[in-house]
Amino acid sequence: LKTKQERPTLRIVGRFDPVKGHREFFPLFKLILDRWTYDAPRPFLEIIGNPVNVTARMLSDSAEQAGLTLEEDLRIIPWRLKNLADVMSRTHLGVVCSLGSEVICRVAQEFLLCGAPIAVSGAGALKEVLRSKSFGVHYGKLSLSDSADLIREQLYRGWQETEETRKKRAELSREHFSFERMGCDLDKVFSPMIRSESSEVLGGERTN
Q1: Tell me, what's the pLDDT at 187?
Q2: What angle do CA 140, 145, 149 make, to 5 degrees?
Q3: From the centroid of its chain, how far is CA 119?
Q4: Half-sphere exposure (CA, 13 Å, Cβ side) for 149?
Q5: How many CB atoms lie within 10 A of CB 192?
Q6: CB neighbours of 52 closer than 8 A, spacing ≥ 6?
Q7: What pLDDT score does 1 carry?
Q8: How far is it, in rounded angstroms, from Cα 108 to Cα 65?
Q9: Are 151 and 157 within 8 A, CB to CB?
Q10: 10 Å Cβ neighbour count for 136?
C-alpha cells in the first residue's frame, strides 16, 4: 500500500546512450518539479541501465546543469538490476524518452506488463504501444512546457492508483504484449506468405 511519505517516482530503464534522450529529459523533469503543486511529496527520478556511449558521470553532470541535485531529485544506477521487474512494478510512471531507434519498444511494454503506466516520446513505434487510454500518454509533438504538464498530471494519477487498477493494466497488456500473443501475431503475418510461396512452388512443379 502507498504511504503518504512515498514519493511519486518516474523511472527510465535502458542503456545510457545519446539516442535514449536522458539528457534531453532533465530540463523537462526540472520543470515538473518547479510546477509540482499537488498534495503529494516531491517527485523523484530514477535512471537504470548500462553505460554504453554515455557514462553515469556524464549523465549526472547534465542533470546538475539542468538544476537537478543527485540523490535529492534523482538517482542514477549504472547497472542492470536483478529484481528489475519488481522495481518496474513499483514505478508510478515509466518514461521512455528516446529520440529515435524505437522499433520493438520492449521497455515500454515491460513497464505495462508490470502494471505501470508510461509516458513516451513518440519516437519510432512508441506511440503504437499505447493500445489503451489506461496505458499512458505520449508527448512527442508537444512543447517542453506542455510536455511537463502532461507528464506531471500522469505521474500524479499514477501515484494515486490502486493495486487493482495496476493489476487490470497488466492483464490488458498481456493480451497485447505477451510472448504468446506476439507469437500469434507473427504467425498471422507469415503463414499467408508461406502458403503463397508453397502454392507457387507446387504450381511450378506441376507446370514442369
Answers
A1: 42
A2: 85
A3: 6
A4: 5
A5: 10
A6: 15, 16, 17
A7: 46
A8: 27
A9: no
A10: 25
- Among 208, 52, 21, 15, CA closest to 119: 21
Task: Give the tens place of pLDDT for each residue, 62-83.
Answer: 999 999 999 999 999 999 898 9
What are the mean pLDDT values of the chain's consecutive 10-residue runs (208 residues total)?
77 95 97 97 97 96 98 96 94 95 81 97 88 95 97 98 97 84 40 44 52
| Whole-prediction pTM | 0.84
The residue whose grid cell reads 513516451 is: 120
9, 46 contact by CB (below 8 A): yes
SS (H, E, C) the chain: CCCCCCCCEEEEECCECHHHCHHHHHHHHHHHHHCCCCCCCCCEEEEECCECCCCHHHHHHHHHHCCCCECCCEEEECCCCCCHHHHHHCCCEEEECCCCCCCCCHHHHHHHHCCCCEEECCCCCHHHHCCCHHHEEECCCCCHHHHHHHHHHHHHHHHHCCHHHHHHHHHHHHHHHCHHHHHHHHHHHHHHHHHHHHHHHHHHHHHC
User: For residue 135, how far is the Cα from the chain centroid?
Assistant: 10
Angstrom CA distances, 119 to 83, 100, 135, 179, stand at: 22, 15, 9, 23
pLDDT of res. 201: 45
